[in-house]
Amino acid sequence: MNDALDVALRLLVVFVVFLTLPLVIGQTEHKVMAHMQGRLGPMYAGGFHGWAQLVADGVKFAQKEDIVPADADRRVFQLAPAVALLPYLLVLLAIPIGPGEGAVGEVIDAGIFFVLAVMGVGVLGSLMAGWASANKFSLLGGLRTAAQLLAYELPMLLAAASVAMAAGTVSLPGIVAAFEWWWLPWQIVGAIVFFVAGLAELQRPPFDMPVADSEIIFGAYTEYTGLRFALFLLAEYAGIVVLCGLTTVLFLGGWHGPWGADGLGWVWTLLKTAVLAFIVIWLRVTYPRLREDQLQKLSWVLLVPLALAQIALTGIVKVAIN
Amino acid sequence: MNLHVAADAPQGFLSPTGVEIAFVLVGLVTLGAAIITVTTRQLVHAALWLVVALGGLAVEYLLLTAEFIAWVQVLIYVGSVVVLLLFGLMLTRAPIGRSPDADSGNRPAALAVALAAAAALVWVVVDAFRTQWIKLDKPQGTTDVTGSVLFRHWVLPFEALSVLLLAALVGAIVLSRKSKDEPGGNGRQNRNGRPTPKAPRAQSDPKAQSAQTSQSGQTSQSGQTSQSGQTSQSGQTSQSDQADQTERTR
């Protein structure tokens, strides 16, 4: 009974985190972008700094009519947002935020594989949406999504493999536990490759070709309205949480910090995740969108060789220190 | 091997455990999804049902406590192979609704081959294991066990398989470079090391290329570039292909 309660409690906590953190990041994005670009933005809802604008947006999305285009493939069209969103919830289960078994939703033996595998499934949602919308812009968006995923899955996997080699385990809590401070310079190339490839998988700027509004309206999500559209947006922000959390856990030492790692380890994890999320937003307002061929070239010509070089370096150092 | 096999302890089939019931149910779902995959007339639906079938297989692995294999199954088959399949479908033809021409006259032959393959596999497995019974109380297929078995006992087959994959990669590069019949196809000349006169000019003005905002140009451009980059994995090939593409779209 106690076990069942424990599992239920963990699931509940992860679910609450899943519902709140993406919204926090969404709100941060609004405000950070507004400050960086000198835009005022909505400042009235709720009083101070327009804090309630996100709530108002949520109410607006909930009120809008849920439209399915006449020619669309109804069931696939309606199923797509769930397929896009749910994998991130599952991934969140496996990310440890503190030391010990108490600070992770579910200890998974092959955590790194689980996380990368399930994240790849989320892209199916975009593909389904793009195809089922019966709209050529949506289809183009879906195509671009697929091309992007195929190109960036490999460097991401290779970078993650490098850390797994360094730690000698594929379990996420195991990798954080094995972390030493000098891994930071050792794995820095892998970290950058992982983060950039993750950004591309999330279709965040500057890798937002699949939803390039000046070319194909909003890509695969063009035909979506109301709550289903909001679910896709939520999936994007949940993706940011997951990517930043994973980068923290794999490359930045998770709950390790200069001090207070025993009791306040989770603060370090959240802090590093928040800094990375800020960088994600920063990149969005800083860089222009890559063209499709530049996007592909970046992956195959730059990121894959860098990731392979990182793996070679990891292997050499690993053999040398043994 | 590390597998804990208790061959002599007789097990009854009349009092199945919860895991066994779940295994059979998931197996039925997987089988059903697989049958729909090959019988549905809607191309993309077939690919999506394939996801269900492959995912069901992953769940079966999980129920057998082979966690590592399960995640690799999801990563490779659901995450990559099906996405590649969908990409190919969308790039060529993926109508919404039924495709009347998506049927083949080879149905009986395909059925016969499928049944023969299934019978052979079942026979091999049954003959190999007979009445052996593996206890699943503690996980049997953890990453640790899988890794050590793979790299201690089965290193040679593993290496042979990787050579096979390498051969496939090389083959893909060779195939993607054969473009001699197409106008401006300079893949062969590049292979011989001779520079193509057209390529540098086409490469030097990317702005003209990006200025073509017509949708068809954009589509074929993105598809072509990503495809070549995908299969060949070499910057040179995708460059020359891209140059071809630029020539063609003018």
Automatic annotation (TrEMBL), chain A:
Its main location: membrane. InterPro entries: NADH_UbQ_OxRdtase_su1/FPO. Its EC number is 7.1.1.-. It is found in: Cell membrane; Membrane. It catalyses: a quinone + NADH + 5 H(+)(in) = a quinol + NAD(+) + 4 H(+)(out). NDH-1 shuttles electrons from NADH, via FMN and iron-sulfur (Fe-S) centers, to quinones in the respiratory chain. The immediate electron acceptor for the enzyme in this species is believed to be ubiquinone. Couples the redox reaction to proton translocation (for every two electrons transferred, four hydrogen ions are translocated across the cytoplasmic membrane), and thus conserves the redox energy in a proton gradient. This subunit may bind ubiquinone. This is NADH-quinone oxidoreductase subunit H. It comes from Streptomyces flavofungini.
From TrEMBL, chain B:
The chain crosses the membrane at residues 21-39, 46-64, 70-89, 109-126, 154-175. Keywords: Cell membrane, Membrane, NAD, Quinone, Transmembrane, Transmembrane helix. Pfam families: Oxidored_q3 (PF00499). It catalyses: a quinone + NADH + 5 H(+)(in) = a quinol + NAD(+) + 4 H(+)(out). It is an enzyme of class 7 (translocase). Residues 178-250 are annotated as: Disordered. It is a multi-pass membrane protein. The keyword Transmembrane helix applies. Belongs to the complex I subunit 6 family. NDH-1 shuttles electrons from NADH, via FMN and iron-sulfur (Fe-S) centers, to quinones in the respiratory chain. Couples the redox reaction to proton translocation (for every two electrons transferred, four hydrogen ions are translocated across the cytoplasmic membrane), and thus conserves the redox energy in a proton gradient. This is NADH-quinone oxidoreductase subunit J. It comes from Streptomyces flavofungini.
